[in-house]
Specification:
binds pyridoxal-5'-phosphate
Length: about 400
C-alpha cells in the first residue's frame, strides 16, 4: 500500500479446507461404486452418523445436504407458529431459515464480550406470539446456555441453536449439541469439519428424531404413506465418504489451529486497540475462527482500514458479520431491525475482523501476519492517507 511488494504472493486466505486421506477416500468411493448405492440412507451415511454421534457426544444426530436445510427442518420439526427471536450478528442462513418457515424473525441485540444473543435483551422482546429462540454460538463461543434455558422455560419457548461454528465445542463438561431442543451444524467446505457440502441436526435425545427424519425425506413413511410437507435434505454417500475420511484427523486439525491461535494471541497481546472475544474458562474451544475486535481510537485505524491494508499485503481477512442480517433488504423494515435497537451488534459488526486460521497455515505465516499488523499500525497515518486518496 505504501509501495514495495506484498508480504504474501499468492495471497493467504482465511481458511483452507482439509483434504481427506486419498487412499481411505478411494476405498470408500470404491465401496459406493461396488454397491451402486449413492444416496438414501446408505451404509456410509449411517456410519458417519454413528461416528459423529460418538465424537460429538450427542443423543441424536441426523446428517443433511447442508446446514441451511438442516436449520429449516429443525425449526419445522418443532411445529412452531409466530415469532422467533434471533441474532443479527450471524450468517444470512440463520435468519432465512426462520422466514422460509413462514415464521417472523425478531432481532435481538448481542453481548459485547461473546457477540452472542443477549438473553436479557431477548427477554424484553418476548410477546404472546414468541414461539422460539434461535441463538448462534458465533465463532464457536458458547452462548449463555443457562440463561437461555431459564428464559425458554419461563415463557414456554423452544430453543434451536445454530451451532454451525461450534463443531466439537464442550461447555462445562457438556457437549455443545446437548443444549436446547435441537442444534444445527454445517459441514460446508469452509467449516472446521466438512463433507464438501453438508450439515446435521443434533440433540440431547431421540425425542424429535422421527419428525426430523420424516421431514428430511419428503415425509415418506413407507410405500403406502406420505405424511406432511417434507423436503429433500439427504446427504449423499459421496459427501459421507469425504466426512468419514476426514473425521479421524479432526482432533489434529483442532490442535493445529489451537497452536496457531495461541501464537496470534502471544504476538498481538500487547498491541493497543485489539481485543478478543471472551471465552469462558470451562469451555473446550474448537478454534474454528480467529476473530479480533479493532478499537479505532486505540488502534489508530478502523477495522475497514486494517482489512484493506492487510489485503494489500496479500492477507485475506473477513469482516464477519458485516453487513448485519438486520440490514438485509428483506428484514431491514422490521421494527426490531432498527439500528438504535441493536447498538452492540452495529458496533461489533463495524469492528470485528477474522484472521486466517487453518491447520496447514505455517507458523511462519502466522508470525508474518502478526508482523504485518504491527507494521500497519505503526504506519497508521500514512495508511489512512493512502486509503482516503483511493476512495
Ligand atoms: C455456514 C453457516 C450456515 C449455513 O450452512 P451451509 O452448510 O453453508 O448451508 C448457517 N449458519 C451459520 C452461522 C453458518 O456459519
Amino acid at each position: 500500500m505504501l509501495g514495495g511488494s506484498p508480504r504474501f504472493s499468492p495471497a493467504v486466505f482465511l481458511t483452507r479446507p482439509r483434504v481427506p486421506d486419498a487412499t481411505l477416500f478411494a476405498e470408500l468411493i470404491a465401496s459406493i461404486f461396488r454397491e451402486r448405492w449413492f444416496t438414501n440412507d446408505g451404509a456410509l451415511v449411517r456410519r458417519l452418523e454413528a461416528d459423529l454421534r460418538e465424537r460429538l457426544g450427542v443423543g441424536f444426530l441426523s446428517v443433511f445436504c447442508n446446514g441451511t436445510v438442516a436449520l429449516q427442518v429443525a425449526l419445522r420439526s418443532l411445529g412452531l407458529r409466530g415469532e422467533v427471536i434471533t441474532t443479527p450478528f450471524t450468517f444470512p442462513a440463520t435468519v432465512h431459515s426462520v422466514e422460509w418457515n413462514s415464521l417472523s424473525p425478531v432481532f435481538c441485540d448481542i453481548d459485547p464480550d461473546t457477540y452472542n444473543l443477549d438473553p436479557a435483551s431477548a427477554e424484553s422482546l418476548v410477546t404472546g406470539d414468541t414461539a422460539a429462540l434461535l441463538p448462534v454460538h458465533v465463532f464457536g463461543t458458547p452462548c449463555d446456555v443457562d440463561a437461555i434455558a431459564r428464559l425458554a422455560s419461563r415463557h414456554g419457548l423452544s430453543v434451536v441453536y445454530d451451532a454451525c461454528h461450534a463443531f466439537g465445542v464442550v461447555r462445562g463438561g457438556t457437549p455443545i449439541g446437548r443444549f436446547g431442543d435441537l442444534s444445527v451444524l454445517s459441514f460446508h467446505a469452509t467449516k472446521l469439519f466438512h463433507t464438501a457440502e453438508g450439515g446435521a441436526i443434533v440433540g440431547p435425545d431421540e425425542r424429535l428424531a422421527p419428525s426430523v427424519k420424516l421431514l428430511r425425506n419428503f415425509g415418506i413413511v413407507n410405500e403406502d404413506e406420505v405424511l406432511g410437507v417434507g423436503l429433500n435434505g439427504k446427504m449423499s454417500e459421496l459427501s459421507a465418504a469425504v466426512g468419514l475420511a476426514l473425521l479421524s484427523g479432526i482432533d489434529e486439525e483442532i490442535a493445529l489451529r489451537g497452536s496457531r491461535a495461541a501464537r496470534y494471541h502471544e504476538g498481538l497481546a500487547e498491541m493497543p486497540g485489539l481485543r478478543w472475544p471472551a471465552v469462558a474458562a470451562n469451555t473446550v474451544p474448537n478454534h474454528a475462527y480467529l476473530p479480533v475486535e479493532v478499537d479505532p481510537e486505540a488502534f489508530g485505524l478502523t477495522r475497514n482500514e486494517l482489512h484493506a491494508a492487510l489485503r494489500a499485503e496479500g492477507i485475506v481477512t473477513r469482516r464477519y458479520f458485516h453487513p448485519l442480517c438486520s440490514e438485509n433488504i428483506a428484514y431491514r423494515d422490521l421494527p426490531s431491525a432498527r439500528p438504535e435497537r441493536l447498538p452492540v451488534a452495529h458496533r461489533v459488526a463495524a469492528r470485528v475482523l477474522c484472521l486466517p486460521l487453518y491447520g496447514e497455515l505455517p507458523m511462519s505465516a502466522v508470525e508474518a501476519i502478526v508482523e504485518a499488523i504491527r507494521e500497519v499500525r505503526a504506519a497508521a497515518p500514512r495508511v489512512r492517507a493512502v486509503l482516503a486518496g483511493s476512495l
